[in-house]
Structure formats: C-alpha cells, structure tokens
Amino acid sequence: MESLLNIDRLTKTYGSLKACNNITFDLYPGQVLGIIGESGSGKSTLLNCIGDSLEIDAGEVTYTNSNNETLNIKQIPESKHRKLTKTEWGFVQQNPHDGLRMNVTAGANIAERLLNVGIRHYGNIREEAKYWLEQVEIDTNRIDDFPHTFSGGMQQRLQLARVLVTKPRLIFMDEPTGGLDVSVQARLLDLLRSLVRNLNLSVILVTHDIGVVRLLAHRLLVMKKGQIVESGLTDRVLDDPQHSYTQQLVSATLIP
Amino acid sequence: MTNTELNSNLSNSSTKPGFNFAYLDEQTKRSIRRAILKAVAIPGHQIPFSSREMPMSYGWGTGGIQVTASVIGKEDTLKVIDQGADDTTNAVNIRRFFKKVCGVNTTEKTSEATLIQTRHRIPETPLIEGQTIVYQVPMPEPLFVIEPSRTEAAKMHALEEYGSMYVKLYEDITNFGHIATAYDYPVMVNQRYLMKPSPIPRFDNPKMNNNPALQLFGAGREKRIYAVPPYTQVKSLDFEDYPFTIEKWDEKACEFCGSTDSYLDEVVIDNEGTRMWICSDTDYCNGQLTMDN
To answer: What is the pTM of this model?
Structure first.
C-alpha cells in the first residue's frame, strides 16, 4: 500500500533547542497514528510543522493528494498549501477558540469550509451543515446558535464537523480531549473512533493521555526531547514498552 | 486634468494667497497620483499612500479630499455631495475649500461636473465618459470583518481567498431571511479583487458596473487608494439561491418630484412621527421638478 504522508528526517530548531530532531515516519490511508510524550517533548511542534505552515530547518514532508500527485509540502507554493489545509486536510485544535469562529453561528462555522471551496448555494450549504451536525451528534436545532453557547465537548464536536464537511483525507488533532471531563471524553472518543472507521480517515493524534491513544491509535510514536524514542503498534508499545522512558510513562499512568 | 498641470502651482487671482494650488504641495500630489495610477492599473486593489494631515478631522473625507486635490486642474468643474445632497455641511465645506484653494468652477449639476467628490452616494444621473468620481472611504478593507490581521488579509487578497467573506452573507440570511447588508456591500472588481464600495447604499452598487466614468476611492486615515477604471465589471457578492437585490420602496414616490426610481430618504417631519420620502439626490430631484414644470 502507498503511504499517504511521508516524513523524512524532519528537524526543527528554536535557537539551540532542537524541538524536533530527525523525525522519520510514514502514515497510511485509514491509519490513526498517535504521538505521545511529556509536555515540551516536541509533539505539538511536529504537528504544526506538518499540518500548519511552521517553517522547518531540514527534512522533507511528502503528501500524496487525491489526484495521486506527490507533493513536497515544504516546497509547493503557499496557495497550494493553504488550499490543502482547507480541503483535504483538517486541523482539530485543543482549544476550540483556535479552530472555530466564536462570533458566528455553528452553521456558519461549518459553511465556511464549503464557501472556501467555491460553493455558493445557501440551501445546499445549510443541508450539508445539518448533515454533519447530525454526524457529530449535535442537535440540528442548534445550527443557528453561537459556539460560545455550546459545552466544551460540543465545541470539540463542532470543530470536527467543520473539518469533516470538505471530506478530508488527513486530520491533525492536537489534544482533542484536553480539558474535557472523563465521560464527555469517552463520548468524543467513541464518536471519533466510528467516524475514523466509516470515513476511512487518516489521523495524526497528539496527546499526553495514554488512554486516548490506547482507544484510538493503531500505531504509536513516543517522543522525548524532540526525538522518537520508540514506535510500533499501540498495544505492543503500551503492553511491552522497550525504552526506559516509555516504561516510566506507562507505569506512571493511574489505573482506577 | 492634465493640460493645466504645468502651471497649476501658480496661484490664481481668486484663490487664497499663501496656499499652493489645491492645498497640497506638488510633490505630495505627484506621489498620490502615482498611487492612483497604480490603483487604476490593478482595479479594486488597495494601494498604500502617504496620507497627509488635512485641515479637517479623519472621518470627514480626508482621503477623498486628497485624491480630489491631486487630480483637480484649473479647467475642472467640481461637484461635492454628501448623502446625495449638495447642501449638507460636509459637501458645502469641501466645495468651499476647493473654491478657496483652487479657484475652480463648482456646480451642483451632475451633468456639468467633470469631477465629483462624494460621500455615501452615486448620483442618480448616469455618469459619462470623461467624468471622475471620488469616493470618501472610511474603511477600505472588506476582509476586516472576518480577518482582523492586515497581513493575513493581504495574503487572502493575493491568493484570492474570498470564501470567508460569504460567511457574513450566510449569517445575514440565517438571521434575517435575506442579505441584510444595506450599505458598503462588498463587490468583486474585474473578477479579481474584493472591494468595499465605501458606504454607498447597495442601491448604488449596480451603477458601478461598467460605468463610463473613472471611479477613485481615497481612505485618509487608513492610507489606502483604490480605483475602478471606466467600463470595468463590478459584481456584488451573492448566493445562487439568494441573488443580489437593491432596495425598493413599494408604492412610494418622492414627495417633491414624484420620482419612483431614485433612492429615497425617510424624513420624520413632526413629533407625531409622520414621515415623508424624498430623493436623497438633491440635484436629480430639482432636475425632475424643472422637467415637470
């Protein structure tokens, strides 16, 4: 199988600090890749280097788009890159304020991605918005409400609907369940799991929560100080950690 | 405009002594004209310019007045309107200002003017080739409502990313059932740049399309100039199922001239709240009256 995304020796430094050091991995269609590590280990930087327009110092990021063209993400024109982030890619932020427009209605938040790709039929846009609200289990009556009237979990689901409406192939998630209480977290994870499977999405999921990756991720990368210290199938890494840092991480997890 | 430029810096007997022709010094006028030329070359694109302090406060037309001062020549006949009227404070003062510093002829008749400075209206009388209309612009950036960062907005213009602008129209339809934006209604110029037409009512938007006159826009505080050259396509944003429409005053006509096809102002005339509807364009209204008599 052809890989969807290929990261080759990606390096990003902030002055003398190596935030990402020689990161190499592949992502395949339909795969959920979890990245875990402690705060400051470089996982969010890595996500922004790939999914956002953060400059990198060395290495290559290659993506195969829906037309089967291989794009070198750091060399394609900015217009093309921005188009990718608005169509085939999606970004779900930890803080919904970064991923949503809080001053326009939920419907408009979903509509924006469709408007960005040139759809100009109000009725159709609205139908589409309603459909995706249903898919993320938000009552369609709330379509004309502002996101700030939504609960934290609903805001995260709205972010997801906003991203999914353009039928993306690759979704980046930065701590999507951060700041949610346990039961809401469980519901969101459950939803994510079924959506990922039904829509054949590829996901790069950054989190520090081992429970989240255990449920969602097929493969796992463990990062420490900007480097990948261990990688493999999620269950293998968590049940039989090889690196001392992963062992610490797993043993530090509270089991109720 | 141009044939008088050579001796335009010589003062005229009827102008106020001590001022250069049209108030601004020649170098400033030149730099503004350079910005205007650039603006004409890229229809709808905002060109930065070094806006000067003018003897009036921001928000009163400092941008328009600088553009007018840069293009006006001795042969020009100037008309100044404010909300369509020639006799409001802003219009009277700007007209008197140019009379004082240029000694040019002024008029209230749209057809006689070669240069028209306007705030918030386009005259009802169709403009013709050779005329120039200068709009006073408070806020030139159409993307501001959706993207507060100028840098990001500039990038969106460069990459023609105007989808987000429709979010505002979407919200209008969602809240009011129709596109409720009544003035400063965003337009696409020459199928390329998104532009704010200054706070003219959307009633005037169709007049901008393929207009034979040169349309110049000046924003003094925001230091931007943009332009729509003659015969350029100007299209108002809309949805396929909610097409652009202009205001209508069903069954109402101007109390003075009886016009039913001009832009009507609603005027409260007594304490009981009685209203009357009159043309906002005073010159047009007078013209209709004399035609009737």
So the answer is: 0.88
